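User: Modeling request: complex.
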Amino acid sequence: MNKAYPTEELLRISGVNPNKCMKCGKCSATCPAYDEMEYHPHQFVSMVNSGDIEPLMNSESIFKCLSCFACVDRCPRGVEPAKLIEAVRIAVVRKQGNNHLLADDVPNMLDDEIPQQAIVSAFRKYSK
Amino acid sequence: MQVNEFKPLIVAFCCNWCSYAGADLAGNNRLSYPADVKIIRVPCSCRVNPMFVLRAFQRGADGVIICGCHPGDCHYTSGNYYTRRRMTLLFSMLDYLGIEKERTRVEWVSAAEGAKFASTMNDFVSKITQLGKNKRLEDLRCKK
Amino acid sequence: MQRIGVFVCWCGSNIASTVDVERVSEALKNEQGVVFSTNYQYMCSQAGQDLIKSAVKEHRLTGIVVCSCSPRMHEATFRKAARSAGINPYMVEIANIREQCSWVHKDIITGTEKAIILGKAAIAKVNLNAPLIPGESPVTKRALVIGGGIAGIQTALDIAEAGFLVDIVEKKPTIGGKMAQLDKTFPTLDCSACILTPKMVDVAQHEKIRIFSYSEVSSVKGFVGNFDVTIKKKARFVNENICTGCGACVEKCPQKKIPNEFNLGMDNRSAIYIPFAQAVPKVATIDPNACNMLKNGKCGLCARVCTAGAIDYTQKDEYIEEKYGAIVVATGFNPISMEKFDEYAYSQSRDVITSLEFERLTNAAGPTGGKLLRPSDNKHPHTIVFVQCVGSRCSVDSEKGKEYCSKICCMYTAKHAMLVRDKYPDTEVYVFYIDVRTPGKAFDEFYRRAVEEYGVHYIKGMVGKVVPEGEKLKVQASDLIENKQLHIDADLVVLAAAIEPDKSARGLATMLTASMDTNDFFTEAHPKLRPVESPTAGVFLSGTCQGPKDIPETVSQAGAAASKVIALLNKDKLLGNPCVAHSNEEICNGCSQCERVCPYGAISYINKEFKMPDRSIKTRRIAVVNPAICQGCGACTVTCPSGAMDLKGFTSKQIMAEVDAICR
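Assistant: Request completed. Predicted assembly structure:
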């Protein structure tokens, strides 16, 4: 079990202000990994804001996020949910060393089907 | 009553449309503030020439406060923005000359904020009373 | 040297209970210039005013100081009394010893001391007062309305009904604006054209109204009551007075492949065209960028078929100069460009359209004759997705759309969805919303009807992306209530694009020196109490140029603007505020600083000849303040580096004297 991280710390790491969110759900609408994720981008914004962080830290969702930043690009309020997800992930990796994969493992998993962006974001995610 | 009690002399410039009306409202609601505050009515806070502030200190004022409409609400659209810029410059120069920053102030008081006017004046007067008499810029030639 | 009378008011016990009025009037007796000082129970009463008047006569007073309530209360009363006693009303000063003294202080000793000081300050000021005479300016009894949409039409009709001349300037070939393009109107579903076109005809037939269509305002000079406006009448290559609007030229024109602006490019028009059947004025216009005759001199068919002989290929832009007393801005709105919302595939598929395009698509006079057919293949759409808030309610840092709510989208989308379900029950309609905002009479009932009676699927969530795939549009969206991601194969996607002020508004605001907010909406003189007036005197606001509005709101604001114009034009002369800035031409060096800070554009520069001590003549540039435009804020007086600029009634010397009196 990962221990909960304080909301303020996550907001400081990510630079995200979740109060700007108007709860339109466009981040989750645009998310290509939606069906893989237990918690969706809009839930990250809302749950971090309300301090409900433990379930997020213990969920595989933080590794399922592709870090494609589509939600960041399309958010009409400039909330940047992907940065918040990344912050939760970093909180888990740094504190507990619980990285899902190692960056060295990534090349072995590649096949021709994987989009370029997924490879780039996989390295971005697992090199931390 | 104490004989030596320090009574500061405070000049307040109030714009006609917001702050002067706010001061009137403080009166209507009987919200008291010290009598040391003397109000001069100007059409807009941007009418307050830095010269007036200097003159007040020269003649022995202990504090000067300028009140205008809230940013964006100026009756003349943009006057209070000029005030804000001019007074920021003037006050930092006065600070350099030894007039403490607490002795000068710009405050936004709308016509509906009688309570804010009274509390601002109470606060300002108590700050100045703590600071004591201002002698730095006083021109002794003006004293008879 | 002034002869000043001091009048201390008791205000019953309001002042007298905390201020020793006897002591005040006694203490002020020996101030400079004071020849008479008294106190009385109620200065504002008839008896009190008579007391002032008789003292003026008896003591030959030239100035008056009244120590009483706030000048905001009774300054006007005492000025009137002074005038009837034969002295200039601006020789009266009020010392506010009620609101700012007796009512806020409890101790009679400090209260009396402060009242004396306030009285001294007022006396010091009156010693430097000069009689002021407000300037008079005549009023031109004619109004200009800029923009010929429903806002401009209603304002013009209301002003004309009151008997004043009105000119409408409309940049398009016809009046009618956006409302002419709409199909039905919410929440009553009456047909837009049926209620608008009779009004357009009323305008055309009204003897007091002139329409300058296909025209733009090119310059505005002057001030309230006296605007000099130049109107550019663009060449339409058709003589408006002769053309009967028969349409023979339109039929014969060989150049028929020009995108039709009125139908938002969803069909084509000819190079010579009449925008729509009920256009006012109903005359043809030649598009110079499309006409073969104008481009390379080969054609001339329209001139040959025109039996009236109205075609004139040599027509030039015409400039008309006219004087106006008041100007009403009614420049309206446009939907924003969709270029920053590429995820909705607006540029990739013709079946992704904006709501205004949807209006044309369902309009009986539109490109499909009112049949709901999708633009790409003219097939009937079976699944339609409406997306709300496209470009509205975006934060500044997202750099995409507008921060404000466009206000009308929720209602027109409910209308569209309802109309589709009504006419084509086999069509599934999805509306993706963030919030449904329906404040208005019978608005929420209307929206609920769309859901409950017409079975429109309202989904709380947003569309993330639209991908054209074959004949379908793959819509990926979120349903926040069910916490699901939805994938819908749609035939048609309708985007509720945010609305923004017309692009012409900013240039116009500069010409009018009218202020705008950061979104380019015109700002009102007071957001609550003067919502149809611009802070610039004589300029009024009507319709969406001031902020997003629906039709009923626009019409009521248009009427309100008209009533303000009527009140202005009804005056023969305007009395100005004499407390205006004035430049001392001996000191002014023409540096232009004051012009830059003036929010009203009241300051201009002239070259004036001065006699020098050696009798030579030197020309210098000096600032001149137009007293009719100046509102007397005093921004220029502080900016002036040479001290040439001063404000009458609040001169630097007067305020300094007050400071001195207080600090003495």
